């Protein structure tokens, strides 16, 4: 159901249920979350999530979607992606429908290939997505696109999603991996701090976690490394310390 491998500092996770167009089951959600935890413990600097075959993720596996356990696993996965210290990039190689769109927007960045479409057809089957999904979709894609997806139960293609802001870069899996390698050279503490603030808009600006992480960046060894690298006219080698 899942393949993963390391490409230097970048971890690549591939949903591997092509016969179900990479639909998410509870077990698969749990497996992805466990791998993300393993990669973070290993010291990966960036993660790319993609799908095997022609689909990124066709949504929730409807054989199990109606149980409470599935929702716990699904939203637990999204929280693990958002709480991970390193940036997570969705390489959307094909349709991302329902939970597939949710998986893509849980990631920090989206690189999207031309066959991709996004859709949230919950109104067609009597289901619903949680408030976080609705607000996150509106934040990333804008209110107009979010309303077309949620209230019209429609779809938007890659180019429409790019124009709306849901797509960060148009490109292939390799483009996503290349970008991940660029990101992997950046200062980990700075990235983790920015991600924490971006993913928690409900917190006050003087939230202790924000303040502590902000100060940790300025007091880190990486600041000294950045200064030294500028003086020596070379690329810095950040360690996240």
Characterise this structure.
There is one protein chain. The chain has 241 residues and is α/β, with parallel strands linked by helices. It folds into 2 domains: 2-183, 2-enoyl-CoA Hydratase, Chain A, domain 1 (Alpha-Beta Complex); 188-232, no CATH class. The chain has 10 helices and 9 strands. The protein has a 6-stranded mixed β-sheet, with helices on both faces. It has a 3-stranded mixed β-sheet with strand order 5-7-8. Strand 1 (2-7) and strand 2 form a beta hairpin. Helix 1 (26-42) runs parallel beside helix 2 (68-83), helix 2 packs parallel to helix 3 and helix 8 packs antiparallel against helix 9 (208-218). 39% of the residues are buried.
Features:
241 residues, alpha/beta, 2-enoyl-CoA Hydratase, Chain A, domain 1, six-stranded mixed β-sheet, three-stranded mixed β-sheet, globular
